[in-house]
Write a structure and sequence with these properties.
By secondary structure, this protein is α/β, with parallel strands linked by helices. 44% of the residues lie in helices and 20% in strands. Strand 6 and strand 7 form a beta hairpin. The radius of gyration is 20 Å and the shape is globular.
Length: 328
């Protein structure tokens, strides 16, 4: 069986083609880089609609298949930015109708976990999913992915990217901050906000931006302090959830999983708790179409269908609202 997956929840347009025996035949990525400032939902959506046809054609060519070979069309139904989601959903509906193939709506956060399991061989991990728009610790329990901890305001990637913009660093900010942090030496005191199992990054962002504006610190020390504080918070909630659930595996995914310092923290936590660590490779960890295609196959094989009447997008669709029949 072959699935085509459409990912368009935010700034990445992704088209993936995946088989039921876990072959990623194509994973085309087309990233919208804003002229200035952060992501503008309608501009990103326009980018996606302008490039959708080309991306689909490229994916089919790369995979060496035609539309007739595709068995199902999967799309990210939420969570994400409304205009971006609608662009992907509209294309997926049109493609499914044109090819006469079933449509499967997929939860973006569930897809990150599912492709992480597929790519690493992890079976039942606790997952730390950290990206531009999401920050959460989740694990499977009784038919659903439960969220054990999450950000109460902005995502870690958003915090990094916003600071990077203020400091004149490259966009997106994560990689440049990581490079500069390696040269930092001084730990500037910053707000460390963990509330129970949740955390908050808006106070940290305000504080680090304030420290930047004083002109008293090197950009290396600022990046070092931001990383150390932000990742220590992630480490704390992840460790607590791992101890609470007793999961045998710890999976790190999302675009921020590319960060070596964070991966080191995750490895240390896993080791201390006798869990096996897995870091999802970046092409499948960052937003991509293959994760949607793969999760579409799992869902479809477990009987999930998304008729056009219920295929409206849901920008606030939480992963703990999704039934996961393929794992029960
Ligand atoms: P995603 O939303 O999953 O596509 O991931 C994008 C986010 O990953 C952006 O906020 C990037 O700044 C962040 N990111 C990418 N590479 C790194 C890195 N090496 N360290 C930290 N964050 C990163
Ligand atoms: Mg993204």
């Amino acid at each position: 069986m072959i699935a085509l997956g459409v990912e368009s929840t935010a700034d990445n347009l992704g088209i993936g083609i995946v088989t039921s025996d876990k072959q990623v035949l194509a994973n085309i990525l087309d990233i919208h880089v804003p002229q200035e400032g952060g992501i503008h939902p309608r501009e990103a959506a326009r980018h996606h609609s302008e490039n959708m046809g080309t991306a689909i054609k490229k994916a089919l060519d790369t995979a060496g298949v035609t539309g007739k070979d595709i068995d199902i069309i999967a799309f990210a139904q939420g969570p994400g930015l409304g205009p971006c989601l609608r662009t992907g959903a509209t294309s997926a509906r049109a493609l499914a109708a044109y090819l006469g193939k079933p449509l499967v709506g997929v939860n973006h956060c569930v897809a990150h976990v599912e492709v992480g399991r597929m790519a690493t061989g992890a079976e039942d991990p606790l997952t730390l999913y950290v990206s531009g728009g999401n920050t959460m610790v989740s694990g499977y329990e009784s038919g659903r992915y439960r969220i054990f901890g999450e950000t109460l305001d902005i995502a870690i990637g958003n915090c990094l990217d916003t600071f990077a913009r203020a400091a004149g660093l490259e966009y997106p900010g994560g990689p440049d901050i990581e490079r500069k942090a390696k040269l930092g030496e001084k730990l500037i005191p910053l707000p460390y906000t963990v509330k129970g199992m949740d955390l908050s990054y808006s106070g940290l962002l305000t504080a680090i931006t304030g420290e930047l504006e004083t002109g008293k610190h090197s950009v290396e020390d600022l990046c070092f302090s931001l990383q150390e504080t932000a990742y220590a918070m992630l480490g704390e909630i992840t460790e607590r959830a791992l101890a609470h659930t007793g999961k045998p595996e710890l999976l790190l995914t999302g675009g921020v999983a590319a960060n070596k310092r964070l991966a080191g923290i995750v490895n240390d936590i896993a080791e201390e708790h006798g869990a096996e660590p897995f870091i999802v490779p970046i092409r499948l960890a960052a937003d991509n179409g293959a994760m949607i295609a793969w999760t579409g196959i799992e869902a479809y094989n477990a009987g999930v269908r998304t008729p056009v009447e219920t295929s409206h997008v849901n920008p606030n669709w939480r992963m703990d609202q999704v039934e996961v029949p393929w794992r029960s």
